[in-house]
Amino acid sequence: MLNDYVLKNRNNLNARIILLGFFILLSPFLHPQAAIPAEYPWQLRLNKEEILVYTRRVEASPILEFKANIIVDEPLDKVVRFFEDEKNMTQWYYQCVRAELVQKESVGKKIFYFVLHLPWPVTERDCVFSQIKSINPDNGVVSYIISVLPERLLEQKGKIRVLSLNSIWRFVPLKDGRTEVYFQQHSNPGGSIPSFLINKLSVEIPFYSLKNLSKMVKDIKE
3-state SS of the chain? Predict the structure, then answer.
């Protein structure tokens, strides 16, 4: 009788252990938020010339994500026209030395080829990406979602292809006739680049790009 009692309780204990293990394995599916990578807080890195630049860590990436914004003393239509003209890009986008329209797939979608020059001795990076435009009918905000298409064009000799890039550009019309420009991006340029340089560029790229864009738009006479 005693052996039967011990055996019965041992079987119950084993069943409980198995059931507990099952729920532990299942818990990410029962509680989806537990499976979502941690979202790190934004930290202000630069507040200069009316440009705010923030960065934050990204789960499982050595590269910082950045976001930045500026208010341009020009109307939305003028700012957007300038932004959409790829011939201007090498003049305002920081370290960009080549920008070409590959294909206009639809009214709101374009494919671009882009080359970024990095400080010596780092090899130039190139990128093929899609740019999808949307307009919010309620508030007139114009947004562009950018993502890479690394296999769309053959890789170029002497350059390293960017395989990961996610960007958001947003242009907000303000009541006083000005435009707020917002830029957010996370990428992985691939290859071997010192992390200090990449994270330095995470501040410099949005700052100088927005600074140049704002200045050049204001200099256009219409």
Answer: CHHHHHHHHHHHHHHHHHHHHHHHHHHHHHCHHHHCCCCCCCEEEEEECCEEEEEEEECCEEEEEEEEEEEECCCHHHHHHHHHCHHHHHHHCCCEEEEEEEEEEECCEEEEEEEECCCCCCCCEEEEEEEEEEECCCCCCEEEEEEECCCCCCCCCCCEECCEEEEEEEEEECCCCCEEEEEEEEEECCCCCCHHHHHHHHHHHHHHHHHHHHHHHHHCCC
pLDDT digits (tens, 9 = 90+) for 89-136: 999 999 999 999 999 999 899 999 999 998 878 899 999 999 999 999
Q: pLDDT, tens digit, for every residue of 8-39? A: 555 554 555 444 444 444 444 444 444 455 68
